[in-house]
Automatic annotation (TrEMBL):
This is Histidine ammonia-lyase. InterPro entries: Aromatic_Lyase, Fumarase/histidase_N, HutH, L-Aspartase-like, Phe/His_NH3-lyase_AS. The gene is hutH. The lineage of its organism: Bacteria, Bacillati, Actinomycetota, Actinomycetes, Kitasatosporales. Keywords: Cytoplasm, Histidine metabolism, Lyase. Its EC number is 4.3.1.3.
Length: 518
């Protein structure tokens, strides 16, 4: 697949596709098979709409109002009204990449041939994505059941040419103006279409896909900074031996230990824990680094499995089912419930909090002269006159403390809605939003450990660090993170380190010596 173009078919999509559209602004193309499936499903809806029997979403109201049969002359108004009334979000605007992800994933389901919309609906949604138009979506409004209703409604409103959206330049303008500027005709919705645009787990799934990609990079980054801290503290790498990992065969643990071993290969600093300040064993934050990061890796693997299953799904209610003979029916279901996604979003937040916590403990050890095995207090040039990295650890501790609050699961909560028709909800959108914050915090926490560990390694004169460490030191200093010396304005160093970690440059620098890490 050309990363500048993503083809939407009838059989789901991949996390890479989501990220290409959400972050890489890749164009979206609809396959002929998808358009044919959409048209066939629409025929089923048209046939049901012509019959006198009530069909949920086609000729009835919604939620607890489904008991009312809607006459044909009111059905266009019904579909338009559900979009307008459900576009009831509040709070800050959601990031463009999240909105693009949820629009793309809704398009993926619409193109599956199970929702009953007309081809013009999917074609218009693809055109809006390709034009770089981003509907205004607000932070609050989804309970993660019956789908991400308010966020998706705000997106659907743009298809109608209503509400506000951001153009390719990011400026907010009336959606009608943006559509006209790009030659896109607003859609007049027909039976089932308003409901189909709203009823999916797309927002929480999009955020899960992006979080998984970010965390894959951050787990590798954390292995690297853990190895640097071990090196700076003159620890032993014998605990990383493959045979020790093999007798507790968690796959993530073995990967993390192997990463650390490869980073430390050729170091003259490791193995000195029996020298000036003899230690029988290194502290847990050093010795157990692969166990903690590895457990997080295994959690991530489970989350990716759940995401893959959901990416292969068509989430809507009701859905159109067609038999081999071409006959079709519409069935209500509960597939819109966000529990599977919400659980792993919360699980990842727990793993993130623990990884941040152990990284902070390593940083604190590097700064404490009573536990750092010969390093100056706070890695300061002239301790007392200089404070060194004392307050960088305060900042890191504040971030860790917030991670612990963010690790409180959202998915254990449920607030009934829609006059008790929707009496159990997943809160998956909330789980996804807090995970995004947690991932950002973890990036900063690893950046602080990077600043401390690189400074500490450079203060170990007379011994040569590992070749991978030397490559990293060169790269991080070139990126604007200064080394040991007198106190200076520290925030720019921390910001440069954060950008270095976030961009993947930390991993790239080390891999220039080690080759690809897990």
């Amino acid at each position: 697949m050309d990363m500048q173009s993503v083809v939407v078919g009838t059989s789901g999509t991949t996390a890479e596709d989501v990220i290409a559209v959400a972050r890489g602004l890749a164009r979206v193309e609809l396959s002929p098979q998808a358009l044919a499936a959409v048209a066939a499903a629409r025929q089923v809806i048209d046939e049901l709409a012509a019959k006198p029997d009530p069909v949920y979403g086609v000729s009835t109201g919604f939620g607890s109002l489904a008991v009312r049969h809607i006459s044909p002359d009111l059905r266009t108004q019904l579909q338009r009204n559900i979009v307008r009334s459900h576009a009831a979000g509040m709070g800050p605007h959601v990031e463009r990449e999240v909105v693009r992800a949820l629009m793309f994933l809704r398009l993926k389901t619409l193109a599956s041939g199970h929702t009953g919309v007309r081809p013009v609906v999917v074609e218009t949604m693809a055109a809006i994505l390709n034009a770089g138009i981003t509907p205004v979506v607000h932070e609050y409004g989804s309970l993660g059941c019956s789908g991400d209703l308010a966020p998706l409604s705000h997106c659907a409103l743009t298809l109608l040419g209503e509400g506000e959206a951001a153009g390719p330049d990011g400026a907010l303008r009336p959606a009608a103006e943006l559509l006209a500027e790009h030659g896109i005709e607003p859609v007049e919705l027909r039976e089932k279409e308003g409901l189909a645009l709203l009823n999916g787990t797309d927002g929480m799934l999009g955020m899960l896909a992006m979080a998984c990609a970010d965390l894959a990079r951050l787990f590798t980054s954390a292995d690297i900074t853990a190895a640097l801290s071990l090196e700076a503290l003159l620890g032993t790498d014998r605990v990383l031996a493959p045979e020790l990992q093999a007798i507790r065969p968690h796959p993530g643990q073995a990967l993390s230990a192997d990463n650390m071993l490869r980073v430390l290969a050729g170091s003259e600093l490791t193995g000195h824990h029996q020298d000036d300040a003899p230690r029988v064993q290194d502290a847990y934050s050093i010795r157990c680094a692969p166990q903690v990061a590895g457990a997080g890796r295994d959690t991530l693997a489970h989350a990716r499995l759940v995401a893959e299953r959901e990416l292969a799904a068509a989430v809507d209610n009701p859905v159109v089912l067609r038999g081999p003979d071409g006959t079709g029916r519409v069935e209500s279901n509960g597939n819109f419930h966000g529990a599977p996604i919400a659980y792993v979003l919360d699980f990842l937040a727990i793993a993130v909090a623990d990884l941040g916590s152990i990284a902070e403990r390593r940083t604190d050890r590097l700064l404490d002269k009573n536990r750092s095995h010969g390093l100056p207090p706070f890695l300061a040039a002239d301790a007392g006159v200089d404070s060194g990295l004392m307050i960088a650890q305060y900042t890191q501790a504040a971030l860790v403390s917030e991670l612990k609050r963010l690790a409180v699961p959202a998915s254990v909560d449920s607030i009934p809605s829609s006059a008790m028709q929707e009496d159990h909800v997943s809160m998956g959108w909330s789980a996804a939003r807090k995970l995004r914050t947690a991932v950002d915090n973890l990036t900063r926490i690893i950046a602080v450990e990077l600043v401390a560990a690189t400074r500490a390694v450079e203060l170990r004169t007379g011994m040569t660090p590992a070749p991978a460490t030397q490559a990293l030191l060169t790269a991080v200093r070139a990126a604007g993170v200064e080394g040991p010396g007198a106190d200076r304005f520290l925030a720019p160093d921390l910001a440069a380190a954060e950008a270095f970690v976030r961009s993947g440059a930390l991993v790239e620098a080390v891999e220039s010596v080690t080759g690809p890490l897990a």
